[in-house]
Amino acid sequence: MDNNIITIEDVRKLLEFKPEEALVTSFYLNVDPRHVPASKFTTLTRNLLREKQQSLEKEDWPQELLDSVREDFKKIENFVVNHFELKGRVRGLVIIADAAHDFFQVYRIAQPVKSRVVVDPNPYIRPLVAILDEYHRLMLVLLDQREARLLEVYMGEILEHKAYYSDVRGKVKEGGWYGLEERRIERSIKNKVIQHYQRVADAVLEHFRVGHFEYLFIGMRAEDYSLFLPLLHSYLQPRVKGRLDIGPKDHINTIIEAALKAEREIEEEEENKILENLVETLNRGGLAIKGIDNVLRSIPLGACQVLVVDDDYHMPGYVCKDCAYLALEEGNCAFCGKEALPVEDVIEEAMEEVLLQRGEIKHIATDNPRLEEISHIGAFLRYKI
Asked: Whole-model pTM?
């Protein structure tokens, strides 16, 4: 299966794919032409797969599992060499594969990813979760008194584009409006403009009912913004994130760049608000925790509602695949007594479990100074532990 758009529900489905006695290959390739020329995709893919193959041969995996991984590698290489085409704004290629269970999922992503190959009993999803946390489904409404464009944008890619035109006219020759009283002309034009704006506002509401976008940006002149804004349905008002200095006649690249810049600014504000709220909740003894030990203890209890984590925070550890028990130190599972298995990144395992428990993940840019106040990881809880 080959998808251009990935959602958090797709990630949860990947996590639910837990085949018995199998290894899953997670392949990430940076295909951003600004940094990696298309002519290098094949060479880079082969090098990544060869290096991972050599690494696996040094590990103690059963032969049948290694044979399945080799088949994954063949299919991945074949896809990149013979089927992958760089189209549109695709910047990242992600493939999750398990030949033993006939599983091969492709995602083309409009954001760059770090090139890597991970072979593990579960799909490696942390980069996908980070991207999903950073980008939101946007609705851009670009309008003036005679024209409107509605663009739905996700990860820098346009998902849908519709145009609307009004019948507002300027001065015309005899037989039109020319020669009528100036005040009457102005009133007539204003009514036509309001009708046009109302039609656009109704179209935005219909888009929301179908697609449930998260952020709404309005691109129009400042003097007309106050006229259009009250026409939007009350459902849409909380999603309006402001006015952009762009309009329906601007080039599409200018439009997308302005939208992504505004989205990044809002994301920074939200990250600061999340950290501020978490620290305040901790200080008053509310439903919150900080630090890796407390977070790992909360997850098998199902208490972690929102995991807040430094983008670049990694830690080796141990996990019980049966009980979701997570620990930093070697030992047996505190719940079933089985030996906990070593993992390269226990933060990745923690994120997987939180998502499976229908929780949320909030990544914070690693340069945010307030991360020190929560020891780089914390959580809002469902209940006290």
From this structure: 0.75
Helix/strand/coil percent split, the chain, to 5: 40, 25, 35
CB 309 within 8 A of CB 377: yes
253, two tokens:
């690249």
Measured CA to CA, the distance from residue 252 to residue 84 in angstroms comes to 25
**181-206 pLDDT per residue, tens:** 555 556 666 778 889 999 999 999 99
* CA distances for 374 relative to 76, 148, 293, angstroms: 40, 46, 12
The pLDDT tens digits of the residues spanning 338-381 come to 888 888 899 999 999 999 899 999 999 989 999 999 999 999 99
186, two tokens? 């102005």
For residues 69 and 13, the model is more confident at 69
Could you tell me if 373 and 283 are in contact, meaning their C-beta atoms sit under 8 angstroms apart? Answer: no
Q: Which of 98, 75, 73 is nearest to 19 (CA)?
A: 98
d(CA 377, CA 364) in angstroms, rounded, equals: 9
Beta-ladder partners of 342: 318
Distance set, CA 330 to CA 290, 317, 318, 319 (Å): 22, 8, 6, 9
Both tokens of 23, joined, read 């290894």
Q: Which residue ranges form the domains of the chain, and what is each CATH number?
A: 1-128 (3.30.960.10), 138-250 (3.30.420.60), 270-385 (3.30.1330.30)
Kind and range of the H or E run holding 198: helix 182-211
Exposed/middle/buried for residue 302 (C-beta within 10 Å: 0-12, 13-18, 19+): middle
